[in-house]
Design goal:
- With 330 residues, the chain is of the alpha/beta class.
- The protein has 4 domains: 58 residues, no CATH class; 71 residues, DNA polymerase, domain 1 (Orthogonal Bundle), CATH 1.10.150; 81 residues, DNA polymerase, domain 1, CATH 1.10.150.20; 79 residues, 3-Layer(aba) Sandwich (Rossmann fold), CATH 3.40.50.10190.
- It contains 15 helices and 8 strands.
- It has a 4-stranded parallel β-sheet, sandwiched between helices. Strands 1-2 form a two-stranded antiparallel sheet.
- Strand 3 and strand 4 form a beta hairpin.
- Helix 6 packs across helix 7.
- The chain is globular.
Length: 330
């Protein structure tokens, strides 16, 4: 079998200890490790190709984003301000369609609210007055619509609230798994690292970090609850876990969806997979059960389809997959 060429635009270094351990210098030529669809990482410097007079990669003395102090207590350095360092981006993310889905609350209005000091965390969104929203949006009519959207956001399921908190190491999939596993925010907050490891996809390295961040967000979570934001995962959302047509199966999706799934984004498809009892995967491996693969315009199979064929993984078209999970389609 021939070797497929891959162009790597970015690769991870993880942390300052890694940079020093790998003896990396500015201008180095490096080797990169990439297995399947795993994010590539810098492996080592090719010392023989190092430019004369090359200096070590400098480590930051302040947060590159805000210029504040750096928290060096963990292997991966972080801004000591935490989420406040990039507050507008975090609020915009939280208000997004896949999170709290506050339609109309875009970058411009978020920046205005943050600059005015009206929003210091995601919970402040739920205590905004019409006057504050009018000032931020420049229109009483727009403010009224935003107020309606914010009120509607209070009823979003727990999984979206967890995701909106911006906890490192979590996204839509992990947030859904956390919410479905614990069912209530009280149970999430009471979980220790060992409890968190019981959630599918959370290992011993990630679990304590998630637990620590949830504890650090206690005041924000309290404010959300006090504002009337839902803190439970609906029973019907968690009932599919362990049952359904995809029970016990790992499903990977690639390509643009067609048929009944046309227009649905990756997060929506992953949610559908988990709702039908399965687990959404990112790359094809020996653990993959089904690959949902849309034919390419060129007719050539994707790299994931090629690997699925090598591993004997079942490959379904979007149409066939939609039939399989028809009872769970909205």
């Amino acid at each position: 079998m021939g070797v497929r060429a891959v162009t790597v635009a970015r690769a991870t270094l993880h942390n300052p200890a890694d940079i020093r351990r790998r003896d990396l210098h500015l201008g180095d030529t490096v080797t990169v490790y990439k297995a399947g669809d795993i994010i590539p990482r810098v492996q080592a410097a090719v010392v023989a190709l190092r430019p004369a007079g090359a200096t070590e990669v400098p480590l930051p003395e302040a947060c590159p984003h805000c210029g504040g102090e750096i928290d060096k207590t963990q292997e991966r350095w972080r801004c000591a301000q935490g989420a406040a360092c990039a507050l507008p981006a975090l609020i915009e993310y939280a208000a997004g369609r896949e999170m709290l889905d506050i339609d109309g609350l875009g970058r411009t209005y978020v920046k205005a609210l943050v600059d005015a000091g009206d929003v210091t965390d995601v919970a402040d969104l739920f205590t905004l007055s019409l006057e504050q929203l009018t000032t931020a949006s420049g229109s009483a009519k727009r403010a009224a619509k935003l107020a309606e959207q914010i009120e509607a956001a209070k009823s979003r399921p727990l999984s979206r609230v967890v995701c909106a908190l911006g906890i490192l190491g979590t996204g839509r999939s992990i947030s859904r798994r956390i919410a479905r596993h614990f069912a209530t925010m009280d149970a999430v907050r009471a979980a220790d690292a060992l409890d968190m490891q019981a959630v599918d996809g959370i290992g011993p390295e990630k679990a304590p970090v998630i637990v620590e961040q949830i504890a650090a967000l206690a005041a924000v979570i309290d404010k959300l609850a006090a504002a009337g934001v839902n803190m439970n995962e609906p029973q019907e959302e968690s009932a599919a876990q362990g049952s359904g047509p995809l029970a016990g199966k790992v499903v990977v999706v690639t390509g643009k969806m067609t048929g009944a799934l046309e227009g649905q984004g990756r997060d929506a498809i992953n949610a559908l997979i988990e709702k039908a009892g399965g687990r959404a995967g990112s790359g094809v491996s020996a653990r993959t059960t089904i690959l949902v693969s849309a034919p390419s315009a060129s007719g050539k199979p994707s790299s994931k389809a090629v690997k699925a064929a090598e591993l004997g993984v079942e490959v379904l078209t979007p149409e066939a997959f939609a039939e399989l999970v028809a009872d769970y389609l909205i």
